[in-house]
Amino acid sequence: MEDYAVIFDHVSKIYTLKSNDKKHKGKQFYALKDVSFKIPVGEVVGILGTNGSGKSTMSVILSGISEPEEGKITVNGEQALIAINTGLNQQLTGLENIQLKGALLGLKKKQVQKIVDDVIEFAELGDFLYQPVKKYSSGMKSRLGFSINLALDPDIIVVDEALSVGDKGFAKKCLDKMTELKKSGKTIIFISHSLPQVLSFCDTAIWLEGGILKEYGEIKTVASHYDEYVKELNALSKKEQKKLLNKKFEQRIIKEKKKESFLNRLFER
Questions:
Q1: Half-sphere exposure of residue 163, counting CA atoms within 13 Å on the CB side?
Q2: DSSP per residue over 168-236, as a string?
Q3: What is residue 36's three-state secondary structure?
Q4: Gene3D superfamilies from the xrefs (predicted)?
Q5: Confidence band, pLDDT 50/70/90 cuts, at residue 269
Q6: Which residues of 194-225 are buried (b: 16+ CB within 10 A; e: fewer)?
Q7: d(CA 215, CA 223)
Q8: 70: left (phi over 0), alpha (psi -120 to 50) or beta
């Protein structure tokens, strides 16, 4: 068991639809459905999938921010999510966000100062570190979030589109840092719309489509299959694409309402 950083055992995540469409409003659907896989310690995994496939849902579950409705997750080690805006208080300055994170983790003053020093060196935010985060661009927020989580030195790093904004120079710096972490044996889960980025950095890939695990295996094989699928999808007319996507969406809607939380199940026992 300890050989694996993350184990998903028949995991499903259910959301209630908030839609203007009366047909779907209030209904439940599977953001993820019956997903199972094992990620070995030290593996670098890319998560592939078109918009709405369940990638971001998986990222918040992998990082412990959200819990599944069905199935079991085993995580061996401390995990951190690096995503645009996630975990940042918009009203506080960059420095105050670092201090708050340290306080929530129960870190001592010296440990917090070490994180501050590391963020100042890596993020290159200059005087913006002392400005409210609400004044940051999306690229600057990404820089701050990335730098804080790297400084915390987690065992499992979940990167969700955090390198898709901002300048290419900083994105390269982040990739170089993650390559260094990869060599040190960290487990990295990398979510990106950039197939070349995933191909160049990851060992294996998970392909999600319609909330279902389509494939998990060697990066070149999975990326090739995913690329073929995207090309076939893009070759369809807009009308055909919409029809296909609607069909997949309908398949994710739950016909009979399920209990919405663990608390419900707990009180029923």
A1: 23
A2: HHHHHHHHHHHHHHHHTT-EEEEE-S-HHHHHHH-SEEEEEETTEEEEEEEHHHHHHHHHHHHHHHHHS
A3: strand
A4: P-loop containing nucleotide triphosphate hydrolases (3.40.50.300)
A5: very low
A6: ebebbbebbebbbbbbbbbbbbbeebeebbeb
A7: 10
A8: beta
How many Å separate Cα 65 from the centre of its chain? 10
Which residues are CB-neighbours of 67 under 8 A, at least 6 positions away?
61, 262
List, in order, residues 6 or more apart from 234 with CB less than 8 Å away: none
Which CATH topology does 40-69+154-268 take?
Answer: Rossmann fold (3.40.50)
Neighbours of 22 (CB within 10 A): 7
HSE, side-chain direction, 13 A CA sphere, residue 135:
10
Q: Please enumerate in sequence order all residues whose Cβ is within 8 A of that of 18, keeping only pairs 6 or more positions apart, or say none.
A: 25
Domain residue ranges in the chain: 40-69+154-268
Q: For residue 177, which amino acid is it?
A: K
Instruction: Find how far residue 229's CA is from the centre of its chain.
Output: 22
Q: Which amino acid is at 187?
A: T
Across the range 99-115, mean pLDDT stands at: 86
Answer for the pair 39, 5: CB distance below 8 angstroms, yes or no.
yes
Q: Which one-letter amino acid corresponds to residue 250?
A: E
Amino acid occupying residue 73: I
pTM of the model: 0.81
pLDDT digits (tens, 9 = 90+) for 169-204: 777 788 888 888 888 889 999 988 788 888 988 999
